[in-house]
Each structure stands twice: as C-alpha cells, then as structure tokens.
Amino acid sequence: MAHPVTPTVVTEDTITDVAAERWGTAHDPRTAELLTALVRHLHAFARETRLSEAEWMAAIRWLTEVGQISDEKREEFILTSDVLGLSMLVVQQNHRFAEGATPATVLGPFHIEGSPELGYGADMSEGLPGTPLYVHGTVRALDGAPIPGAVLDVWQADSDGAYESQLDVDEARLRGKYTTREDGAYCVRTIAPLGYAIPMDGPVGRLIRQTEISHFRPAHVHFLLNVPGYEPLITHLFREGAEYLDSDVVFGVKRELVVTFAEREPGPTPDGGHSDVPWCEAAYDFVLQPA
Ligand code: BEZ
Ligand code: FE
Does ligand 1 lie within 6 Å of residue 109's CB atom? Predict the structure, then answer.
C-alpha cells in the first residue's frame, strides 16, 4: 500500500527559507552562497516595501526593456549597476590598494578592445575639434621605481560627449595604447574632455527623470593598465574644477584622481614638439599596486 505523501505547505512565513534552501543546492559552493543570499535579500526587499503586484510587474517590464535595448554596444545593465552605485561599491571592495597607489574607478560601458598602438606623444584625437591636451608623467611601482614597457589603454568622449561605440565610425576614434619608455614615461596627446550625459534615451534615463538626480559625469579621460606583476588598474583622470565633480551620476570620482589641467600659451609641448594654439597640460604619475 502506497504511503500518502504530505506536500510541503509553503506559507508567507516559510517561503524564504524554503527557496533559499532550494537554491543552496547549487553544485558550486560559491554559487550556492550567492543565490541563497540573493533570495534572502530579494524577499526582504519585498517584505520591507510590501511590494504590490502592480509594482512587481512594473519592475519586470522595466528589466525586460533593459534587456531589449542592450546589445554589444549598448550596455544598459552595466549602466543600471553604475547609477545605483553597485559598480563603484564592487570596485572599491575589490581594489583596496595601499596608500599612494592610484585608486581604481568604474570601467563604464564604452571601453573597446584592440585600440591602436601609438607612440610617445602621438595624437589619439587626430582631426577632431577641441583644445589640445597633453597628459604625461610616469608609471611607477609603490617604491617609486619606474615601470618601462607598461601599456596604458586610453579612451575618452569627443567634444559632443560621444564615445566611439555610440557613433557609426570605422576608424579608432579617441582611443589608443601608449607604452612607457625605459624611464617609465608616457605622453598622451588628445583633446580636453568635457562633462557629458549618460545615455538617457532608455529605461535608465526614464527612471532618472523621475528623480532630482543629475545625469552628468564630470570631464575625464579613461585609463586601463594591465601590467604583468601588478594589480590591473582601471581608472580615470578628472579635470580639476570641472562641473559635476560633486554629483557624478555613477559615483566614480575620487579626490586622488582629480588633476589640474593647466592652461598653456602656444609654445613647446611635453613631447618635445610645439603647439601653435593654446593647449592644456595634465601631469600625472600612475602608481601600481604589486599583484
Ligand atoms: C563613462 O565614463 O564612460 C561611463 C561610466 C559609467 C556609465 C556611463 C558612462
Ligand atoms: Fe567616460
């Protein structure tokens, strides 16, 4: 005679434990830990806010749109994480560098792999309008020793605030890889960046417009340094005095990354050349944390 099976009765009080236990069966222990915690925090959110069915459905529709607008060039999920402060929290707790090392900040959605290799002082902004900007200095270890052969992967927005991946262009635009010389020195020639708005034509923008949040980022240039023997560094340099330094929509500003863009008269430039027009100079030494 078959024994009657007693079904597990899930109630409002027990559902969190039951779901967490179920997801805790993930084969990989770390996946089990992440999924159980996710279930517990999601349930706590729904309980704390007494989430209604209409609100739950609005959130599902919003997430669907985030997925639908995303492709290999449009990263609306990363943008969501950025504007919620999650990206910067994850960056900070994973890159607790020694004092004196250059701090990390968000990668953002606009980095493109495979930028062209450019020489010392080569112009990555060729033909584009803007004030010439030379960013130069050295790449060093914490003890001050220069690091030769370090590659700086550099990218930035144009004077309309647009990155290459937002435009329909065939050639590398405002990005390049610069290698340090024997003395650890690098020199980037570009144009002075301006502050710009994050993409506002999607679900993230629609949400931000319902708040008092500024949707701008302060003027900056992006740098990625992946040097053998050192912690990878993803960071920006921000222009001192720029608008929005106090309200960066993605929480990416750190005091140590704000540098002076000194305004210079026409004359000799740091690469040994000459500028016929007024230009800007930003001097910065990147200091890398050992791996
Ligand atoms: C950026 O600086 O490229 C960026 C970072 C996060 C969100 C949007 C843009
Ligand atoms: Fe940027």
Answer: yes
Q: Which residue type does 188 have?
A: V
Q: Which of 238, 227, 222 is nearest to 145 (CA)?
A: 227
State the Cα–Cα distance between residues 238 and 230, nearest whole angstrom.
Answer: 23
For residues 169 and 269, membership in a common domain is answered with yes
- Which has the closest alpha carbon to 149: 185, 113, 102? 185
> What is this structure's pTM?
0.91
pLDDT for position 221:
97
- In this structure, the answer to whether residues 226 and 86 fall within a common structural domain is yes
CA 261 to chain centre: 21
Give nearest CA residue, ligand 1 atom 7: 108
Ligand 1 pocket test target in 70, 200, 224, 250 with most atoms within 8 Å of CB? 250
Q: What does each C-alpha distance from 27 to 31, 36, 41, 188 come to in angstroms?
A: 8, 13, 21, 48
Supply the range of the domain harboring residue 26.
1-51
Which of the ligands is closest to the CA of residue 220? 2
Tell me how far the alpha carbon of residue 139 is from its chain's centroid: 21
Task: Give pLDDT tens digits for 254-281.
Answer: 999 999 999 999 999 999 999 999 999 9
Specify whether the CB–CB gap between 286 and 139 falls below 8 A.
yes
* Number of domains observed in the structure of the chain: 2
Does the Cβ of 157 fall within 6 Å of ligand 1?
Answer: no
Neighbour count for residue 286 (Cβ, 10 Å): 23
Domain membership flag for residue 63: no
